[in-house]
Amino acid sequence: MSAYRKLRFESLEQCVAEVRRIVAASEAGRLVSSGQWTPGQILAHVAAWIEYGYQGYPIKPPPFFIRWVLRLRLRSMLERGMPRGVKIPGVPGGTVGADEMTTVAAAERLLVALRRLEQRQEAAFDSPAFGPMSHEDRVRLNLRHAELHLGHLSY
Predict the structure, then answer these.
(1) Of 14, 26, 36, 53, which has fewest CB within 10 angstroms of its CB?
(2) DSSP assignment, residue 154?
């Protein structure tokens, strides 16, 4: 098992480049996951959370007080990153979107989702946790989410 990598993406382009490096490592037989998910599940999960902004979220918003606290923590998360090990209460497995997919198929799905953000496609649905966000904040939040999960993949 490999160690967790602390990643930092300052742009969507950096995240796209990392996804491409992950695919190349997978094809070369060098990709290793340090977590409980397969590389395909990790990539699919990150893609799914981007897609939910366009297609709708499969979970309900948390109670008002929790949303209020999360909203207060948003700036910190956008700047410092997302905490590891957080589970969504009441959701089996603690989260959604970790679909079983091959690494290559999940990477393509993620690249398509990242392209939508690059093209500034307007999200139709607000975050259940954070509510309405600017496009820039939505991008930053998705980059922090990608850093969190892609850090479990080494090559």
Answers:
(1) 36
(2) E
Q: Are 39 and 152 in contact (CB under 8 A)?
A: no
Q: What are the structural domain ranges in the chain?
A: 12-154
- Contacts of residue 10, defined as CB under 8 A and 6 or more positions apart, other chains included, come to 143
CA distances from 113 to 6, 13, 16, 146 (A): 22, 13, 10, 12
Structure tokens at 42: 């990790």
Query: pLDDT for 112-140, tens place per residue?
Result: 999 999 999 999 999 999 999 999 999 99
How many Cβ atoms from other residues are within 10 Å of residue 153's Cβ? 27
Is-above-0.85 flag for pTM?
A: yes
Handedness of CA 87, 129, 71, 65 (dihedral sign): negative
